[in-house]
Amino acid sequence: MLALVALAVVIWKMPERCLLRCRSSHSDVLPAIARGAAYGQAGTVRCCREDEARALRLNRAATWRFFTAFVGAETGWLPPDNFSGNPTPTVAQRTSPTNIGL
Questions:
Q1: What is the pLDDT of residue 26?
Q2: C-alpha span between 96 and 82 (Å, rounded)
Q3: 3-state secondary structure at position 39
Q4: Is 49 within a domain?
């Protein structure tokens, strides 16, 4: 709530700086909104179903295996653009701007 009040004051007093202040205000407000969505009325974290939790764990493990296998000092710590396992395992030894941002 404090961030919203600060944002209103900035818009009122210094509209030319609004874009910069909007970004910082959102970075303060959005985590609070996410926390509110994650916690129920009693203040306990809502859990996902067991099958969803298992799927998330498998996805996490597969992602970790990918980065362990393909990212290292020899690649400049950049992930490859893609990996094709069919018909033969082939790694694209290039990277994309998205991967650089990762």
A1: 60
A2: 10
A3: strand
A4: no
Confidence of residue 64 (pLDDT cuts 50, 70, 90): very high
Residue 94: inside a domain, yes or no? yes
- How many structural domains comprise the chain? 1
Of all residues in the chain, the percent with pLDDT exceeding 70 is 62
Give the residue ranges of DSSP H helices in 39-96.
50-70
> Is 2 part of any domain?
no
Domain that holds residue 86: 77-102
For 6-22, b/e burial (b = at least 16 CB within 10 A) is ebeebeeeeeeeeeebe
Task: Tell me the β-bridge partners of 90.
Answer: 84
All residues at 6 or more sequence positions from 44 whose CB lies less than 8 Å from its CB, including other chains: none
Residue 20 forms part of a structural domain = no
H or E element that contains 21: helix 18-38
Q: pLDDT at position 10, please? A: 67
